[in-house]
Each structure stands twice: as C-alpha cells, then as structure tokens.
C-alpha cells in the first residue's frame, strides 16, 4: 500500500520510465454526489502492482502528472468513470488512453464485456469477484480486498497487447486508434449537466411551459447537489420536480417534500426558466411526429449499420444506438437542427453515410 507522498513519487518515477500504466479505482458511492475514492491501483508492464491509498494520501498530484503525460499510455477497462474520478482528484486530463472494453468491440467481440469475461475469452484467465461490493474506505483492507484490487490491473497489459494484435489482424487498427483519441477531450471529465437527466425523463409530451420549468428545476437541483455533495434524489426527486413544474402558480412552500430553505431558489429558477428561449432546451426527438417513410429510412439505416459492422467485424453498438440513428435521419430530413456529430465524422462516417469506404489503412484519415 502506498500511503505517503514520498512513496507515490517513487511509483510515479517508475511509471514514467515504463511509459505504460494500467489503472483502476475502488470507491464508495452511496450518499454523495461524487464517488468517495478509496484506492487507485497501478500496474506496470513487469507485473508490479501498487495500491495508492486515497484515504491516507493527502493528495494525488503525482498521479495527475501520469495522466497528463502524453508519452505514458494509460490502460483501463471501461475507462471513463475511473478517469472522471481520478481527474477530479488530480485536476488533470488524460492524454493517452487505451480502453480494453471498447477495444474488444474492434476484435469481433462485444464492446460490453466485463473485465472478467473478457480476460476469460482472450487470455483464458478467471478472476474471483467476491470483493465487488465492499467498503473501500475502511482500514485496514482485508486480504481478499487487496487481492481483488490487484487482479483488476494485473492482466491489463497482456490483454491490451492481444486486443491490439487482434484488431490489426482484422484491419481495424486505425479505427481503434482513432476511437481512443476521444478520451483526450477534457469535457468528458467535467461535472455532468442536467441535459441528460431531462432527456431521460421523456418530456416531449409535456406543454412547452412545463418543459422549460422542469429543465430549470433540474439545473437548479444539479447545482445544489454538487455544492452539497449529495445525491440528486436527496435534494429533490424527479417526480417531485415534475409536480412543481406542473403547478407554476404555487407559492412557497413549493412542495411538501422539498425543504423550505429551497423555496426562494426554486422560484428564482422557475422565473429564469419562464424567459428561456425554447431552442435552449435539450433536443428531444420524442416530440417529432415520424411518418412511415421516415420510419422506413431509420430502419434501413439501422440495418445498413449492422451489415457494415458485421463486414468489418465490429460490434454495431460501438457505431450508434437506435436513438442516435433516429436523430441522424431526422436531421437529414431537416426535422431537427442537429444530430450526434460523431456519427458524421471520423471512422463512424463510413458506417452511417452512403458510399463512404470503411477505413482500413494504418493512418488516421484527414479531417473533413
């Protein structure tokens, strides 16, 4: 266990020499907005594993230097959440990431396999999983916790090498490399907004005034939850905010399930939402009346994506889901103003746009 800054500095020196580091995190996420980090596992290509004790260490600044060094490849499985947690604790953005879960999708395997299932399939290694749900903040850690934490990074170097080799043998090396470049976007590591929550609530059938009010309330709740580091539902539940949005003439207290201390802030959020231009709402395709001809276009496009993915031995889920394909077709028919840009740029364009060849070279294509 690495419990002092001096020990962590030594580990970081070794990591910089190795130029390749496998990472994972263990955390508790129950009564807070942000996960409570307990452990960061770090493995080097020579199978040395270091466990950084995030409870004992005063900071993880040294780890931030590893993240932001473009010469050091970071190997993770299902990387985004772990990187978001580490980025928050280090104030650093990753520069060179290889995600083994995503990489599997470029090797004629599903891109949704757990680490245990992928290791079994690729390297014939079985991992015990008895410590999956445990308290990573307690000290000392048990032997089973330590063993579990080590196993999560110990085999990532060998796994990454095999996946890269398999992708190259299928001609998918360039697309795989391009996909990993998306982890360079620092916006991925910022706090989420209320947009995704709004779209998940399927509000398209609601009157415009109610939709604007709900979005304003969701933005207020997000800010409040962040400032208090409490789960969203501990501030106000979705159903409660829907009731408030449906009763715009209410006066404080706004709702019996919302503490009175929030009343003034909620009314301020509602006033601001009332003046919000409708185009500022997140685009929700649910309110679009889709004709039979458009539905046929969507289904044709979906089948084309699946067919081309099968030809390239890619997991079609990597390319686009049904909602994204729907948005793309609606945009092409001028029914919505925008569509997911990653579907019409880079390697995905070959699978979503007619008459675009699948990239099979080892060089990244020039930007449009």
Concise structural overview:
The chain is α/β, with parallel strands linked by helices. Helices cover 46% and strands 8% of the residues.
Relevant terms:
16 helices; alpha/beta; 8% strand; 3 domains; disordered C terminus; flat; DNA polymerase, domain 1; 368 residues
Please explain how this structure is put together.
- The chain is an alpha/beta fold and 368 residues long.
- It has three domains: 5-189, Ribonuclease H-like superfamily/Ribonuclease H (Nucleotidyltransferase, domain 5, 2-Layer Sandwich); 195-280, DNA polymerase, domain 1 (Orthogonal Bundle), CATH 1.10.150; 288-352, HRDC domain (DNA polymerase, domain 1), CATH 1.10.150.
- The chain contains 16 helices and five strands.
- It has a five-stranded mixed β-sheet with strand order 3-2-1-4-5.
- α1 packs parallel to α2, α2 (61-67) crosses α3 and α14 packs across α15 (322-332).
- The longest helix is centred in the middle third of the chain and has 21 residues, at 208-228.
What is the topology?
Layout lengths: L4 H14 L1 E9 L7 E8 L5 E5 L7 H7 L5 E4 L2 H12 L6 E3 H5 L10 H9 L19 H12 L1 H14 L3 H8 L14 H6 L7 H21 L3 H4 L2 H9 L16 H12 L17 H21 L9 H11 L16 H4 L16
Parallel strand pairs: 1-4, 4-5
Antiparallel strand pairs: 1-2, 2-3
Write down the CATH class of the largest domain: Alpha Beta
Shape: flat
Biggest sheet: strands, sense, closure?
5 strands, mixed
Show unreliable segments.
362-368
Q: Strand order, main sheet: write it out.
A: 3-2-1-4-5
The portion of residues assigned to helices is 40-55%
The separation of the N and C termini measures 48 Å
What is the residue-averaged pLDDT?
91
Contiguous helical run count: 16
The third-level CATH topology of the largest domain is: Nucleotidyltransferase, domain 5
Rg from C-alpha positions? 23 Å
The domain count comes to: 3
- Quick one: how many beta strands? 5
